[in-house]
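User: Here's a chain of 182 residues. Predict its fold as tokens.
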Amino acid sequence: MADQLQESGRRTKRNSWLLFVWIATAQARSRDRGEAAASTLSAGRGIVRGMNVTSITPLVTTSQLARTRAFYVDLLGCEVSYDSDHYLGIRAAGPGSPELGFMPPDAMAPHTFAGEGLFFVLNVPSADREYGRLFAAGAELLGPPADQPWGMRSFALRDPNGVLVIVAHAIPAAVEYQANFR
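Assistant: Prediction complete.
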């Protein structure tokens, strides 16, 4: 069991780093251009510009909308953007902020999320402060905040659907990771 948890922790760290880098890179590109980051593909004939995506909303199928709402809104402090028996939208702050969606299975997505292979990184001003608040609230935390060499101090917990939620704030990256930032 300890080996599985250690391996899971290594995968989580690696995957959280990849997501962190992807988000940071997309935000930097968007800022540098003054527009939404446009994807490009090489089609053998040169560069092909992709669609102009203005936002991405991950959507998780679940039969636990009420528990999911309580976790993200009551425990983590997210805001509801849409609330019905067929869809729950939550966001980090007001309109235009990053959003997550949850819905029961339907014809387009007939299976509930199996609880593996997906995680969200919530960037906050202080992971330590959030850890203390969530610990006091009785949340099931997977470990205390730890410094990651890629430039993140973070801790993790799971939502009712099995999604790994990493709460983090930026710290200086170790020298060996600094060249990776663009």
